[in-house]
Amino acid sequence: MNQTQDRGSARRNGPVTRPLVNTVRRPSTVDLIAVELRNAIYGGTLMPGSSVREAEVASQLGVSRGPLRESAQRLVQEGLLVARPGAGLRVVTVGADQIDDLYQARLAIESAAVRQIAALDPEVRRRHIASAEVLFDALESALEDGSDARRIGDADLDLHYGLVEATGNLRLMSFASTLIIQTRIAALSHADGYVVRTDILDVHRTLLRQVSDGDGQAASETLAGHFRQTVDRLLGRLDKPFSTVSGEADGSHFSFNRLP
């Protein structure tokens, strides 16, 4: 495996790699197993509340249980897995009582990111947001089709992570990565199933324009409003009409990659 993976390449027929892979030097087996576990959670192979069957996962990855357990403990520390005495490891669930906290944390990280980018000199700023603009195009394409909830959800989260990634700040990227995975867990945990909004293009276009124009305050306020609406929708408090599409939460079309 290359030290830096192509995080935009993986989709429905392969491992999910954006926004789950941080650049590491000489990744160890434990590093690579952790990536695969994050991919499995983000992609729905390991659904919220499901158990991590050590023997089965280790066999699929072609590794022993020792490094698998070490990798799993990393995800416990990240809040993606939970260890219960006598019950082994399970994927966390993110219920209604945690939604506000989750989006407050995302707002803190993503607001810091857009403010940082907006404060750059114009030429430097354009270079930093170029990749985010490509991700916006991918979101636009997914929304134009409008029928694939997973594709829309992936493109939406890709763009939000891409803005953080554009800062080059590894700590912000690490925090954002975990929060993005928890966002997917929250969506998969919802009582109504996996549902995404399809009327979100304009707010993301506005967000990118504000960052491009160097208006970090306005971009931060746009994020805050967008997240407030998202929380209200997830908690059944959004009164204004909105458009959605639902998709299968089953992640059986994903599988673990056998490690080299």
UniProtKB/TrEMBL annotation:
SUPFAM superfamilies for this protein: GntR ligand-binding domain-like, Winged helix' DNA-binding domain
Residue span of region Disordered: 1-20
Domain of life of the native organism: Bacteria
A Pfam family this chain is assigned to: GntR
Keyword terms, alphabetized: DNA-binding, Transcription, Transcription regulation
Keyword Signal attached: no
InterPro entries: GntR_C, TF_FadR/GntR_C, Tscrpt_reg_HTH_GntR, WH-like_DNA-bd_sf, WH_DNA-bd_sf
Gene3D superfamilies: GntR ligand-binding domain-like (1.20.120.530), Winged helix-like DNA-binding domain superfamily/Winged helix DNA-binding domain (1.10.10.10)
Tagged with keyword Cell membrane: no
PROSITE patterns, A to Z: HTH_GNTR (PS50949)
Residues annotated as domain HTH gntR-type: 27-94
Name the UniProt record assigns to this protein: GntR family transcriptional regulator
Lineage: Bacteria, Bacillati, Actinomycetota, Actinomycetes, Micrococcales
